[in-house]
Amino acid sequence: MKIPETGRDGEEVLAEMEARREDDADWQSGRTWSLVYHVDEPHKQFKDEAHALYSTQNALSPSAFPSLVGFENEVVGMLADWLGGDEGTVGNMSSGGTESILLAVKTARDWARAERGVDRPHVVLPETAHPAFSKGVHYFGLEETRVPCGEDWRADPEAMAEAVREETALVVASAPSYPHGVVDPVEEVAAVAREAGAMCHVDACIGGIMLASLRDLGRDVPPFDLSVEGVTSLSVDPHKYGYTAKGASALLWADDDHREHQYFAFDGWPGGVYAGPTMAGTRPGGPIAAAWGVMQKLGHEGYLDLAATTMETTEALLDGVADIDGLGVVAEPDMTIFAVESTDPELDAYGVHAEMTERDWGLGRQQRPESIHASVMYHHRDCVEDFLADLRESVAVAREADGGDDRAPMYGMNAEMAEDGDYANLAKTMLNDAVYRP
Ligand SMILES: Cc1ncc(COP(=O)(O)O)c(C=O)c1O
Question: Angle, nearest 10°, between helix axes 285-322 and 208-216?
Answer without folding.
Answer: 60
